[in-house]
Design brief:
Elements: H1 3-13, E1 19-21, E2 31-32, H2 40-55, E3 59-66, E4 69-75, E5 84-86, H3 90-104, H4 126-129, H5 132-136, H6 167-171, H7 177-181, H8 184-188, H9 205-219, H10 223-235, E6 241-243, E7 257-260, H11 261-275, H12 280-288, E8 293-294, E9 300-303, E10 308-311, E11 317-321, E12 325-330, E13 335-341, H13 348-361
Parallel strand pairs: 2-4
Antiparallel strand pairs: 1-6, 3-4, 3-13, 5-7, 6-7, 8-9, 9-10, 11-12, 12-13
Helix pairs in contact: 2-13, 3-9, 3-10, 3-12
Length: about 375
């Protein structure tokens, strides 16, 4: 990943029109905790975050928030307060937030309706045969993801030219979401429908794109616009954000969201607040962010509804993205960690999660 793309410049080179999310007229307060208010644990976390930035210079942005108060924000390289940080696969977790809204609004009758009910073009494959719940838990069995390409299908050869996955061709207007889910690319995908829906976890971008298409058909609104209307406006962001789309206007739901670092923090604070509330959406968020299926391997031993859970060290639930993007929240302490970068290597992940583990364990001031 090139550094410039990590800080928002995919939309500068893309050939499609991203969806533009507007700032709120009255942004959610996100005040800074003063040095006098900081606990020993806060000061240790700040020191560890600064050391992390030095040790890993490919990190572009780092944010720590405790119960709505900024404890630390740091930038380096091309990162900065006015940059939009690209979430990569954190977009999958944001798509889940829109799915919950659609259920609680009655546009979707629940988690156990088949996606093909709303998208009949998918009815003949596992995307359509899977329920919303099965798509949320990456258990459609629609295809076997290849290698380390972020849940991408295996086309073989040079079907998409030099591109290893579907995101760049979609960004450049050479491929649509529909062509991947049931069109010519689906026809060329290897290892299709490899097991029955709900049988086991396989991380794949297709399940998220199928969810987005289901929400789009059920609500009559594009996924990015629906997220804007039902989530982002409630977040009360302070700045413009963007979500990439294909040439037809369908969101790149698996990868394409970008926002300023402070607005990522506002989103996390809002999410923790909503998760604590009674009612349909609070119930959905509580279920979405706890283990729903085992992953079978890796540091995260379980998965919720498009959220990583059950880390062997770091508490809470996480949205994660290629090259080291991390969006983590611990509902018990109210603490938030957001980190962006353009390379992942060595101990970048282990060191990051240790900072959060130690900070949460230190308690609250």
């Amino acid at each position: 990943m090139q550094e410039r793309f990590n800080v928002g410049e995919y939309i500068e080179v893309g050939k499609t029109d991203p969806y533009r999310l507007r700032p709120h007229a009255s942004p959610r307060p996100l005040t800074r905790r003063s040095p006098d208010e900081m606990s020993a644990g806060d000061r240790a976390a700040v020191a560890a975050a600064k050391a992390y930035l030095t040790k890993y210079p490919e990190t572009t942005g780092f944010l720590l928030v405790d119960r709505g108060r900024i404890v630390f924000d740091g930038y380096q390289g091309m990162g900065g307060p006015a940059r939009e940080f690209y979430g990569m696969s954190i977009g999958k977790s944001l798509t889940s937030l829109a799915v919950g809204r659609a259920i609680c609004a009655g546009a979707l009758p629940g988690l156990d309706v088949a996606a093909g009910t709303y998208v009949p073009e998918m009815a003949g494959n596992n995307f359509g045969k899977s329920t919303v719940r099965q798509l949320l838990t990456m258990s459609s069995g629609a295809y076997q993801s290849k290698g380390k390409a972020g849940g991408q299908p295996n086309f073989g050869g040079k079907l998409l030219g030099k591109y290893a996955g579907v995101t760049w061709p979609m960004r450049l207007g050479k491929l649509t979401v529909e062509e991947m889910l049931w069109g010519w690319i689906w026809a060329e995908t290897r290892d299709r429908d490899i097991h029955g829906p709900g049988e086991r976890f396989i991380y794949k971008s297709g399940d998220t794109l199928a969810l987005a298409k289901t929400v789009e058909r059920a609500t009559g609104t594009r996924l990015a616009a629906y997220f804007d209307q039902t989530v982002w406006r409630s977040v009360r962001a302070a700045h413009i954000a963007h979500w990439e789309s294909d040439s037809t206007g369908s969101a790149l739901a698996h990868a394409g969201f970008q926002a300023r670092l402070a607005d990522w923090g506002r989103l996390a604070v809002w999410l923790l607040d909503e998760r604590a509330k009674p009612g349909c959406y609070g119930d959905y968020l509580r279920a979405a962010t706890v283990p729903q299926i085992t992953t079978g391997s890796g540091a995260f031993r379980s998965y919720g509804y498009q959220w990583w859970t059950g880390h062997k060290r770091a508490p809470g639930f996480w949205g994660l993205g290629y090259a080291g993007q991390a969006f983590g929240m611990d509902p018990d302490s109210g603490k938030v960690m957001v980190k962006f970068g353009y390379a992942k290597y060595g101990r970048t992940a282990g060191d990051l999660f240790r900072i959060f583990q130690d900070w949460v364990a230190s308690g609250n001031p």
